[in-house]
Design brief:
CATH superfamily: Vaccinia Virus protein VP39
Number of strands: 7
Distance between the termini: 24 Å
Strand order of the largest sheet: 3-2-1-4-5-7-6
Order of helices and strands: HHHEHEHEEHEHHEHHE
CATH topology: Rossmann fold
CATH class: Alpha Beta
Largest sheet: 7 strands, mixed
Amino acid sequence: MGQNLASCCANLYELPIVGQLLGQSFHPGGARLTRQLASASLISPRSDVLDVACGKGNSARVIAADFGATVTGCDYSALNLARASTASQAAGLTGKTQFVRASAEQLPFAAESFDVSLCECSLCLFENMDTALQQLKSVLKPGGRIGISDFFLNTPAPDSLNGLLGRVLCVAGAPSANGYREALSRAGFDFIRVRRVNWTLADMIQRIRHRLKLLAVTNTVTSADLPVDFGDPAPVLADLEDFIASGGAGYLIATARRS
């Protein structure tokens, strides 16, 4: 990932307002979808897993605790990695998880180090998806598996969703569902399976709307807490809901095998 874009995305996900709007799991579906993706990726107690763009390590802890796997999380945000390490230590998962600062497009791991690589709601944010997928493939053992969850677009997103908040929500710049399939094939993956999980989006919107109401009542967020170009979340959220309802966007999980 280009350093400027990587820094921008990392800085966004460090903002308190992002955590207040999205909760502990930044991606739609939360721990429930993480478990589904882990199962679809055949993660087991014998698996060494790489969680790319791991944020505060919530998915890494779910996979380590529920599946018994050993998980390495990587992210560009040093602050979120520190939060991830602290939370894993508190959960007694220090021996099952570790966290490394790294860019998805320049992974610092040895070739063929992992059984599974995961990327939840982040692939569409990378500056070069093909480069990131090549990196994710290079660290997989032969026959290793990749698991992805992300937004997809059926039609171009409205202008209101192409701003900073749209990027936080992973809508801006998302490819089509077939675009993910083609990118995985170009990267050298086979046995590609794509499944739509649009239920996660209604859940996400309801969760954010509830949190917006709480923030309004408690008055815990002021304009000083927001980036200049963040905008008012409420109308952007309404536009996203309408866009999803019209069939313009959806959410998917994709799994594939290193061929």
